[in-house]
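As a warm-up, study this chain.
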Amino acid sequence: MNNEIEKVKCLIIGSGPAGYTAAIYAARADMKPVLYQGLQPGGQLTITTEVENYPGYPKGTMGPAMMEDFKAQAERFGTSVRWGYATSVDFSSQPYKVVIDEKDTILADTVIISTGASAKWLGLESEQRLNGYGVSACAVCDGFFFKQQDVAIIGAGDTAAEEATYLAKLCKKVYMIVRKGEMRASKAMQHRVLNTPNIEVLYNTETKEILGDKTVDGVLVYNNATKEDRKLDVTGFFVAIGHKPNTELFEGILDLDENGYIKTIPGSTKTNIEGIFAAGDVQDHIYRQAVTAAGSGCMAAIDAERYLAAKGIH
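Now compare it with the structure written out below.
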């Protein structure tokens, strides 16, 4: 396609469990959806290794393989799954205009946004190299693999505190690495952490390096107060310094919350613009699970179908 203009009933921006599930439902409803996979085809699950908490996979599965299954199912019902990502949008009049890869224009009666969120990372080379091999940004997803082992988690907010207490139920020892002299978490969450005997909070501490060749076998930290290095003997390293929703494209157009997540009308996937829907981690900063993302993808397709029917668009 070269500088083409194409008209579609349902455009899905982003893949992952939300986008692909929306595509499955939209395709089965004869909405002939077109899905652009975005910069990370398959979403965050493609950078995880094993997924054991998604229903229907009793033996577990690999994240990338699971996303291939989702994609194949969406295509089976007629979804046009394409490479490319949205570079600009115009939601000021209908049909809505979305430019792909700065050249091709899609005119869409409905748009489902499932661009997800990206975990914030420390930016260490070893962190990226060992991502999925002992380094994780999701304790709920991956904590199970570290049963009765020693792990470290970095972060100081409510999410970090919650994930630390979650890991403490599974792991022998949890080191919580806090950069400053205090946590940012609410008093109630701090109280929970400090009253969990197998969590050791390391204040004024920064991560210098994650150690290990093929898997994590330790973390080198530096204490800003004592000016000392210390090696933590851990097999897992969890990063909980926040997520950033992929919503730059929609700033000033859709209603976003203070953290940049798309606001949806409670009990639906509707945004502040009719015919534009949001599903998955781009609008969910609470659960952030594959199964909840898939559920909201289903909701978005049903919301879009009902919208088209009410408008008399066939």
